[in-house]
Amino acid sequence: MEFGLNESQEILRDSARSFFAGECPMSEVRRLMATDSAYDNSLWRKLAEQGYTGIIFPEEYGGVGLGKVELILLMEEAGRALLPGPFFSTVALAGSVIDAVATAEQKKNYLAPICRGEARATMAILEAAASWELEDLQMAAVNGKLSGEKLFVSDAAVADWILVLARDGVFLVDRKSVGVTTLPMFSMDLTRKLYAVQFNNAPAEKLGDLAGSPSALDLATTALVAEMVGGMQRTLDLTVEYAKTRKQFGKTIGSFQAVQHQCADMYLETESSRSAAYYAAWALEEKVPDARAAVSIAKIYASDAGRTVGNRGIQIHGGMGFTWENDLHLFYRRAKASETTFGDATFHRERLARLTIDTPSVAGMSA
Amino acid sequence: MDLNLTREEAAFRDEFRSWLATNVPRDWSAWREKPLEESFSYLRAWQRRLHEGGWAAVSWPTEYGGRSATLMQQAIFWEEMARVEAPPMANALGLGLIGPTIIAYGTEAQKKRFSPRILSADEIWCQGFSEPNAGSDLAALQTEARLDGGYYLVNGQKVWTSYGWVGDWCELVVRTDPTAPKHKGLTVLLVDMKSPGVEVRPLRQMTGESEFNELFFRDVRVPVENVLGKVNDGWTVAMSTLMYERGSYGARLHLLFKRNISRLIQLARTVPRNGRTAAEDPLIRQKLAQCLAEIEIMRLNQLRAFSRITATGVPGPEGSIQKIFWSELNQRVQQLAQEILGPYGQLLAADSHAIDKGVWSYGYLRTRGNTIEAGTSEVQRNITGHFVLGLPRSY
To answer: Which one of A11, A260, A361 would you mutate to disrupt binding with B, by most B Cβ within 10 Å of its Cβ?
Structure first.
């Protein structure tokens, strides 16, 4: 039993960290967040050159064929850098779903260009009711065409394909086809743009049944948690650094227990989120029986911890933390968006309750 | 990262599991609620049995009677113990904290003298660290030891000593150089509790029992060969013991917590609440799920810490967040038990209406001590801030 990273995992993490530090410094994040789509073509090409756009996909489609733990390490580093644009939407979300539900022919058509860095994709799930329960979906295909509106679709304006969760399956729609309109939704996270996508008899290709999607959505959820962990770590690092240098009453504020204890709690919350994210990724990879519970546990903990770590970080920064110029609020905005995406802590606590309390024995947790 | 058991780990588990199947006592449930004074000889016998099987201290080096078990094997050991609801061992401090410290810092003669009798439970150990005026600020301790020929003459008072009433030996931290800075003048002595001048008094705690003792030392003579580690380097030795305390305890607690939450879920299914059962009440469900999640994360944090320690060889300050995590979580679980049980939650063991023989009222009170004993949450946060995050000392 080994819960540390192996050598190749460490190399992947370290090279991702230096890649993002070089290619996506905060100045670049701020430049991109001020654009309409937060997308940069040359950055995307570099992500593809690193193999990141195909990291978990099979080699027969041009992917790198690494495991889910490797994806989680990459997402953590992307989160630490607050990577803007459609990487999460394309790889962790839409790509995972294509990989999980589509036919070999469809994977050749859609997954291979994603691996090569030639295409981007996203996934449309929520409707006006904004419910993460798949039973609440209203949209359904009629004669191979979709009509209606999906909301909160990340990066839709730069996606070549929009995957649609409908009552009768998972569909793929070409964003440029007639009958598809994307309208920006203005939301807190400036680095991951959201859209309302209207479908008006838009031609839709069925990729598979809904039954195949939950495990892919669980992987996307875990990847999102890993990204949140990266954001927490960056917030903690920035805050500890500030507490070591900022002086008041003739002392660095990090020497005050009221400040130091909050930093200790940030560390506890960040490390605990990380443990939960890593385990969930491993559980999904190994298809262990408690994998679904592990995903909910990770999302429960990180959803609350992401917000709390941000709260503490801003508080410790004092007036500086409340300025636009300081970077903390950018991570804080992302944390709030991620908290609600795929269901917040309250949603996942109920999901975990169904997996455990509502079964005769307390299942869903390994001994 | 691979959380599957290795072949060696699986073999270790299977060997211990089959040993337990034939050796674990079947009548522990009849003893477990009794005061420790009554059950102690039972626990001593159980530890002897484990020792005869070679299972009393799996973490110890093979040459001193252990199995040189890896941390993961130790985790497996405690998991298997909990799975069959095995009783605890009598010499818990000797096996878990003091023995490892003697093995790390002791002379060859000390290791040979003390370790076999720790393993066999022939000599029970207690720990003389805290004093009335040295709790969190342990290095301020005042119990003094003056060199007098081949002996140290010990005078002073210790408090919150577990197993003091039954202790044969004590790992005692004393001040040997009153002129040195407070961390520099300390020494650890191994003290025979039957020495003249040692007095043990019970300390009654808020639960009503006396788990702990006060120890008084009046001109107690301790031979110089019973110094553990170097003279005036006692802080290093004592800290090593505390790291073992903070690092490993969480692993054993995980299954206890799981048993508690499983029982609470069972109870919640029977307790009526607003026209349905408590298990169907949305707020109770939220709280149960939160506790379930945190209990699992406690296990995962522990496993990750073990992997880190395996690389460095000794427990590090990260153990502090484990201590914060389990102690505060345990209090939340007990508060949730009170919410689920309602008026029944307050009933003591003596009441015939009490649920589960009053363990929930006891647990509610007892867990208040969790965030204080073995280093307060405040001290743990200081340690995390200073030693893990590199913030300036705050005290």
So the answer is: A260
Residue B320 lies in a domain: yes
Q: Quick one: CA torsion of A346, A286, A154, A151, rounded to 10 degrees?
A: -50
pTM score, whole prediction: 0.94
Both structure tokens of B74: 């130790």
For residue B168, the enclosing domain spans: 125-232
So what's the pLDDT on residue A364?
A: 40
C-alpha A358/C-alpha A222 separation (Å) is 24
Distance between A76 CA and the closest CA of chain B, angstroms: 16
In single-letter form, the type of residue at position B123 comes to E
Do residues B362 and B307 lie in contact, with contact meaning Cβ atoms separated by under 8 Å? no
- What would the pLDDT profile of B7-60 be if each residue is shown by its tens digit? 999 999 999 999 999 999 999 989 988 888 899 999 999 999 999 999 999 999
Of B6, B265, B294, Cβ closest to residue A362 = B265
Q: Is residue B393 part of a domain?
A: no
| CA R_g for chain A | 20
- Residue of chain A whose alpha carbon sits nearest to that of B392: A255
B203 and B134 inside one domain:
yes
Q: Which of A9, A264, A300 sits opposite B290 (nearest CB)?
A: A300
Length of chain B: 395
Q: Residues of A numbered 113-152 whose beta carbons fall under 8 angstroms of chain B's beta carbons: which are they?
A: none
Q: How far is B58 from chain A (nearest CA, A)?
A: 17
Task: For B260-288, write each residue's pLDDT tens digit.
Answer: 999 999 999 999 999 999 999 999 999 99
B112–chain A Cβ distance below 8 A for any pair: no
- Neighbouring residues of B201: CB distance < 8 A, sequence distance ≥ 6: B213, B214, B215, B216
A367 pLDDT higher than 50: no
Please say which residue of B204, B232, B260 terminates a domain: B232
Residue of B nearest to A356 (CA): B289
Task: Specify the CATH number for the domain of residue B196.
Answer: 2.40.110.10
Give me the DSSP letters along B148-169. ETTEEEEEEEEEEEETGGG-SE
Residue B172: pLDDT over 80: yes
Cα distances from B135 to residues B93, B154, B374, in angstroms, run 19, 19, 10
Taking the C-alpha atoms of residue A21 and residue B197, their distance in angstroms, rounded to an integer, is 65
Same domain? For B183 and B131 the reply is yes
Identify the H or E element spanning A336: helix A328-340
Q: Nearest CA to CA, how far is A220 from chain B (Å)? A: 19
Nearby residues of A94 by Cβ (< 8 Å), 6 or more positions away: A114, A121, A122, A123, A159, A161, A163
pLDDT at A361: 56
- Partnered with residue A195 across adjacent β-strands are A153, A184
